[in-house]
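new request in #modeling-help
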Amino acid sequence: MGTGARTDPLAHIRDLFDLDDDVVYLDGNSLGAPPKNVAARVQEVVSRQWGRRLIRSWSEGWWEAPQRVGDRIGKLVGAAPGQVVVADSTSVNLFKALMAAVHGTDRAEIVVDAGTFPTDGYIARSVAELSGLTLRPADPDDLALSDTTAVVLLNHVDYRTGRLLDMAKLTEQVHAVGAKVVWDLCHSVGVLPIELDALNVNLAVGCTYKFLNGGPGSPAFLYVPTEAQPGFHQPLTGWTGHRSPFAMSPDYTPDPGVSRARVGTPDIISMLALDAALDVWDRVDLEDVRAKGLALTAHFRDLVEDLPGIEVITPDGEWRGHQVSLRHPDAATLMRRLVERQVIGDHRPPDVLRFGFAPLYNTFEDAERAATALGELL
Amino acid sequence: MGTGARTDPLAHIRDLFDLDDDVVYLDGNSLGAPPKNVAARVQEVVSRQWGRRLIRSWSEGWWEAPQRVGDRIGKLVGAAPGQVVVADSTSVNLFKALMAAVHGTDRAEIVVDAGTFPTDGYIARSVAELSGLTLRPADPDDLALSDTTAVVLLNHVDYRTGRLLDMAKLTEQVHAVGAKVVWDLCHSVGVLPIELDALNVNLAVGCTYKFLNGGPGSPAFLYVPTEAQPGFHQPLTGWTGHRSPFAMSPDYTPDPGVSRARVGTPDIISMLALDAALDVWDRVDLEDVRAKGLALTAHFRDLVEDLPGIEVITPDGEWRGHQVSLRHPDAATLMRRLVERQVIGDHRPPDVLRFGFAPLYNTFEDAERAATALGELL
């Protein structure tokens, strides 16, 4: 107790979130908690922008929102403006990214990390089938790339174990064989500094409802670096990706910039809820977020690693995201009983308990309360 | 004046909408006006469901929302439960529908109506290229189908002219050559009775932000009839379309039902705003809506068709949706000046003025005020 208040430079940020104090919420890696300003912003969007301005709002900020909000996310992932667009779901953006990455290739295979979040593997399989390539799952420690590799899809943080991959080293490995890399940032954006531009990453996708707190199912993002935009071709050629969408031309000419990755009409209420949620990032430094996340997860790990029957599967040291994953044969039952005690993490079958630590609102006391509850149950 | 109050069985429904009385809003065919209950519902979703229940809300109604809200739309399009899912944008759903329609076909062509809304044509082009078929735009009055036709994509109501196609007759024509039909209902859902099941329509898509008033960019819907579900295969194989999404299996096994058309995590705030917006349909009969829509548009047509320089391009008689489209060489300027006078329609280049009439909230007085303003400008 009390460790947090004395050592936590982000302690005051929790007040920006609408969270009950009796809940220990350790599932922000699945659904982030609501920043307090979101509710009012959504009211403004529904009641004033939609209700009073009606169709006129499309030319008063709505149309450009996918790029404008995208640029805000760009700041969190090391992307200069004009390279990130907010649109669709992560799965749909993965499809765009992979289809674009293999467009026109004469190479034979797509590689995906073997422990990938399922949707990445499913979409990669579809893209391989559509494009006549093979799909090869591979261990990130031994990707076995060659000059037949067209593209490598990697999860920056493993959703089960919390392992963090070395983006710099792996991007270099992929480039060394002349292949492209697509990074899935779902579990790392908002957790730690990312440098997409500096590392010459080819494409990246991520969701916004975990550590970015955009709300349930808030729209995802896609990074297409400036130099890759002219060659970014994918089959979801919806009208909002057109160079002149309101010309209503019968032929599709993609926008010259990142907007070519747009497809249908953007979902404005959710997009602007996300926009509000991002305000908190203007007030924090990602280095502080990272430092607190490592401290929180280390503290929790220390408290639980010797509990009976518990195996910590999250790597120690710096190569981890902001979650601690524990293996226990009764994981499902344990998590149900923890939730009954207002300690909310989640269970991933068959036997993994996940505890996500969001440095913007989780406290060292949260770690202690969760560890105590788990200890009592064991 | 006054024609409305005496003859309009839906007059009281306008009170359910949050609309300013000094605005004549005739663009509900582009963005429907907000039902009053949406604002409170969105607050409930953000503040209670997200804020208090956090991740638990996924198992308290969120997860099934795409099918539950889909069933509500199903009632408006003549689809029995379990055949409509709300997800993604219309463009993305068109891609799924067309890819599924050509899956495994040995036929050579996709046909699209020549006046299609652009995104339909763009997506159909992509699907043709991916699947090795040709794309042929055709006049709906002379589709020239043959046993080489795999699928025909038709817009139920033409977005420019407001012409309504005969779904029964055209579906029969398509089926007569053994092809499949995909109907785009964007401009007809909520305007008139539709009977997808009774007509054995193969697939249908539509948006929810026009006459269904779901809000800007609210998620679209996709109809996959029960008997077509086992054969519905499309490449956006996202995790939420999986038979057991939380098993996190490395292999994709589609859900046996309409949920196989789901892709990524559903956008809950917008989905539940739409859900609230649909409540109004529980209180009206689509036959009344259709009757009022025809009367409103006929009244407006009568008032404007003899104005100088105006050519009405919306068909007379019953084969039209709920808009009146006028051609005038100065259409862009005219619409700008109408909007200045609080008469809000829209302009489609180069020379079309569109006035949409939403029977749930538009009045005969709206038609008269709009016609008067247009007459003064001319």
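bot summary: The longest strand of chain A covers residues 149-155.
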